[in-house]
């Protein structure tokens, strides 16, 4: 049996560094919201020959009223341009300039109004708040009958912290990607992060449910002798399940990231980051935090 709880101070230091670094990244760089939230235009192009460099494209489009333009490769010859709302005249002039020099085909052109973007932003905030509240309530109710010394609210509070940890780290990665590569937070990325919330809760519930079973065995003079052993046994008993579940989910997501289109690439990346952090926190944080909390509260 692996003594996971023995090295909990190492996990806490490592997680503290990750959380601090993530907060610093978010404070300094922030997130770059996509036009799904701010409103703007999306133009997808495919060049007939090799795709020109971003610098060449920017020079070709100089003096056009496009605002800040985000250029993202899409496949071998494709390109996505994200910019502010543009008129049809500007749209046609943009195509004309690029087509004249390199030759291309327009795959998609979409306008998203700022009103729609603001509405999506407000609805996303509401969904996130409701999801967190409902999950906290579920955890508190589900573990209301757990034997002492655990209280149901403690399990709920730890689960919310794990949720915060598992979402914060992917957000920090996207803040760095936004700063250095212009990657934006879009609706698919937001959906992926909400999925991460559910995935993180599921992993922690699996571990805590096994903790509850082991504590019942302790109260009936069963297989383990101490509370700490019950927690460590719960982590070991669920380890193979956590590994198998995480790997079977990660493999298709990795293929989606490398082989899928540009529209789902960062959706897959957000899920990959969330699943990895969710596996880590459910094994190395959930029960160590619980045992440390109870030892700290013990008179």
Secondary structure topology:
Blueprint: H1 8-29, H2 35-38, E1 40-47, H3 54-60, E2 70-74, E3 78-83, H4 88-101, E4 104-112, H5 114-142, H6 152-181, H7 187-219, H8 227-259, H9 262-284, H10 286-297
Antiparallel strand pairs: 1-3, 1-4, 2-3
Q: Could you please describe the fold and organization of this structure?
A:
The chain has 299 residues and is an alpha+beta fold. The protein folds into two domains: 4-34 and 116-297, Multidrug efflux transporter AcrB transmembrane domain (Multidrug efflux transporter AcrB transmembrane fold, Up-down Bundle); 40-112, Alpha-Beta Plaits (2-Layer Sandwich). It contains ten helices and four strands, in the order ααβαββαβαααααα. It has helices at 8-29, 35-38, 54-60, 88-101, 114-142, 152-181, 187-219, 227-259, 262-284, 286-297; strands spanning 40-47, 70-74, 78-83, 104-112. A four-stranded antiparallel sheet has the order 2-3-1-4. β2 (70-74) and β3 (78-83) form a beta hairpin. The longest helix has 33 residues, at 187-219.
Structural class, from helix and strand content?
alpha+beta
What would the average pLDDT be, to the nearest integer? 86
The CATH homologous superfamily of the largest domain corresponds to Multidrug efflux transporter AcrB transmembrane domain
Count the beta strands.
4
Helix content: 55-70%
Cα-based radius of gyration, to the nearest Å: 24 Å
Give the overall form: elongated
Order of strands, main sheet, comes to 2-3-1-4
Number of helices: 10
Q: Looking at CATH, which topology of the largest domain would you report?
A: Multidrug efflux transporter AcrB transmembrane fold
Largest sheet: 4 strands, antiparallel
How many structural domains can be distinguished in the coordinates? 2
As a percent range, the share of strand residues is 5-15%
CATH class of the largest domain: Mainly Alpha
Element pattern in H and E: HHEHEEHEHHHHHH
